[in-house]
Amino acid sequence: MGYRNLSECAADLEKKGMLVRVNAELDPYLEIGCVQRRVYEAGGPALLFTNVRGSRFPMLGNLFGTTERTRYIFRDSLRVIEAMVRMKISPKEAVMDFSSLLKAFAGAYRLLPAGRRFSPVLKNKCTLKDLPQLVSWPMDGGAFVTLPLVYTENPAARGFRSSNLGMYRVQISGNEYQDNEAGLHYQIHRGIGVHHREALRRGEPLPVNIFIGGAPALSVAAVMPLPEGMPELAFAGVLGGRRISYGRTPNGLPVPAEADFCISGHIYGNETKPEGPFGDHIGYYSLKHDFPVMKVDAVYHRDGAIYPFTTVGRPPQEDTSFGEFIHELTGGLIPEVLPGIKAVHAVDAAGVHPLLFAIGSERYAPYENNPRPKELLTQANAVLGQGQLSLAKYLFIANYFDNEELDIHDTEAFLRHMLERADWRRDLHFQTSTTIDTLDYSGSGLNEGSKLVIAACGGKIRELTAEIRGGLGLPDGFSEPKAAMPGVLVVKGRKADAPRGMEDQAMHAFVRSFSADHPINRFPLIIVADDSDFTARNMANLLWVTFTRSNPASDVYGIEAETVSKHFGCRGSLVIDARIKPHHAPPLIMDKDVEKRVDSLFAKGGVLAGLG
Questions:
Q1: How far is CA 258 from CA 105, 121, 249, 250, 483, in A?
Q2: Which of 34, 60, 204, 491 is buried most, with the most CB atoms less than 10 Å from its CB?
């Protein structure tokens, strides 16, 4: 059986040497987050901070910091989930396997939440100020709950079947928030938005419960890409190996009985207040914007409550390991949801949403000797119409039949495969004036930007090189060319100054400086960056700079480019302007004094020596 609550999980991990107690007093303002990220980077244990400055509640971090530890936490239920996935993919085979069938039925039973008269989480009350005031980065606008489980129900059809459990960060101090207010940063394409709209239509307040802690399965369920109609609380029962028991708060909503905390209240109308900034998972701050305000009626907590948290930043971070585990659970369902698609990979090093890789199947005309992307484009549209995948900015889609051994997780090999085959006159497909991730500031406005699908199939049309021969004759303002990998050249450009959403005349001058037969075109992809040495130093830097700092519609250029019948293409190299623009959010930089204090904790003789 799985863990009933977070305390059981922490005790077991400590017994197995997978959790370390930190008894020294540490500050939730910057210090604790810095420690957690350092231990994550080292592949270290979960951390239980027992002496949190300013709060009586201990904090638990890095719980999901390695996929091995996450698998251990859910070891009792993984085979059940595998059986249920197998039944979905191959029902006939699953029925023939009696043990798998039993596991699937056991999982189905655990889908049903169970009501309970006494809920430990409702025993005590506190205030938002009593919670650990976690501030992860120096420019954060206040303290945030970073592992919140935000629960709402559709006002038109109350109950679990119409519920949504999502993980949307919650600001509990700072800015204009009163002591009984919290900011809910829910982004586009989130279930809570549907419920809020219905409440507005009815002229009713929207009840909201925010769970913190409880069975670890709740946190994973809240971020799972579940099929429509599958309540997250139900899936948490399957993943956790036991039915989720619940009580109810005065606002009428359920609360998992074994949760550690519950912030209960309402959203009234369309009232908003400035929320943020917040150091986010793309590696930059998300800035201050108006988001809905929750009026808090009560904050409940159980005896011995533990406050779980994570901190995010430039990948990889703890949410990277989280994502890897979720992919292990759901990856096999991709062909069921997206016919013809063999695999999809949200590239973590690029900030997840900015870049997707996909492997599709070009089957429309198998008799053609030199096929061009046709079905791949249909499949690309399906990918960009699927849940959170719709927020992607760049999508590279390859043809499975061109290389059946292509590994979608081998980033360099996948890019080489694409660059060897892409015909820039034909294979670039833009979507302009559309939605992108709320956290991505490269676009033309908040939630606004563009997308680029690069679809390539067939045999190689070029050989790639990483050799820079002779002088490239770069125009004024461009210098320091570096080969990042075969086929990709990075060039340092002058400081960007074009207005938001507009093309840069200096970039037009750059591409006009070359003809399609110039030697620079031996590199089919050219990246213009502020620091070519940093960008070309490794694959992680290349991906992060290129795809977080560019908006396809305004930042993609080409040598000898032309637009024919509204289709953009180029005869020479494709050029991406990946310089920092004036409207971009600042990157995350930790306070030097805090880093020095944290360094001393990990030094020989320090309380965290050997952990990071």
A1: 25, 6, 14, 17, 54
A2: 60
| Contact by Cβ (8 Å): 143, 133 | yes
For 235, which DSSP code?
A: H
Tokens of 540: 């992680």
Both tokens of 247, joined, read: 């009580």
Confidence of residue 84 (pLDDT cuts 50, 70, 90): low
Look at residues 356, 487, 467 and name the one whose alpha carbon lies nearest to residue 417. Answer: 487
Q: Are 173 and 144 spatial neighbours (Cβ–Cβ below 8 Å)?
A: no
Q: What is the DSSP string of 123-155?
A: SEEE-GGGS---B-STT-SS-EESS-EEEEE-T
Cα–Cα distance measured from residue 602 to residue 604, given in angstroms and rounded to the nearest whole number: 7
**Cα 517 off chain centre by:** 41
Using CA atoms, how far apart are residues 582 and 235, in angstroms rounded to an integer?
A: 44
Give Cβ neighbours of residue 203 (< 8 Å, ≥ 6 apart): none
CA within 13 Å, CB half, 491: 25
pTM above 0.85, yes or no: yes
pLDDT for res 103 = 46
Strand partners of residue 445: 448
Average pLDDT over residues 43-66: 97
**SS3 of 511, please?**
helix
Helix 31-41 × helix 592-602 angle, to 10°: 60
Say which residue, 454 or 106, is predicted with more confidence.
454
CA nearest neighbour of 417 among 378, 372, 454, 468:
454
